[in-house]
Amino acid sequence: MAAPFFSETGKEKGTAYQYFEILPLNTETSYTAEQLNQYIKSHIPETYQNKMNGSGPLATLGDSFIAAQNQYGVNALYLLAHAIHESAWGSSAIAQTKYNLFGFGAVDSDPYNGAKKFNSYQDGINYVAQYVAHQYQNPKGSYYHGAMLGNKAAGMNAKYASDPLWGQQIAGYMYRIDKALGKKDFGRYTSGSYKLAVSTVDAPLNVRTQPSASDSKDISYHLPSSGAAMIVSGQVSNRDGTWYKIFSDQSNFLDRETAYIYHNGPRGTLSEIVNVAGEKQ
């Protein structure tokens, strides 16, 4: 998820994170349904196109991905990337016969029989979007480890898939789709007043309704582990130290709430804004 980056002289300057791997998924994409469909039509590998005798189901489901995003608050670019990865561009047997683009319910020992069957592709997309929103993006969810894709330490990948590179691979699809469609999403939350930050402590980190450490009633939820990411929209300093004003994971872009997390001061450095690979440092 993070790797060192260097100056032009070769001197190591710090650590850079992959943008789509740490972007919280309770955000929205800049792209329309038609643009998502067009990407599939233009970029589906020939092997899969030949297998399906055409572009397959993903080339017609842009409206469903956008509708799921706008109903459940789950990024549609992520949903499409997840579907591409798990269904081999819509060509897998699970996708073709069970309308299951995400391999949802499949287990390593028996993927096909374990996978859930849906009544339609739209039903499958809605089911998985709702499940991700409730169980992985929301701090009250059973599998919440931060609202981003992440890795085995933090994010969806900590619990969703056995493959330690699962989050990185889906983030890679998001990057490639975004690049092909004009790079409207990359850096959206690392420019202007927005930054991405991560927890730096190997323990639960309090997220509060107010920038104060004096009242336990202000605690909304916890970031569970080091590396869990958040979108920072501002900064506040007081006698306790410096706080980041963040977008709460108890909300999404449909009804955004703010919260506060401790950055640094007498208690040490508990979170920090990070550098993103591919951006000027």
TrEMBL record:
Chain ranges of the Mannosyl-glycoprotein endo-beta-N-acetylglucosamidase-like domain: 51-185
Gene3D superfamilies registered for this protein in UniProt: 1.10.530.10
Protein's UniProt name: Glucosaminidase domain-containing protein
InterPro entries per the UniProt record, alphabetical: Glycosyl_Hydrolase_73 (IPR051056), MGlyc_endo_b_GlcNAc-like_dom (IPR002901)
The species this protein was found in: Tigheibacillus halophilus
Protein origin, superkingdom: Bacteria
Keyword rRNA processing set for record: no
Keyword vocabulary terms for this entry: Hydrolase
Signal peptide: none
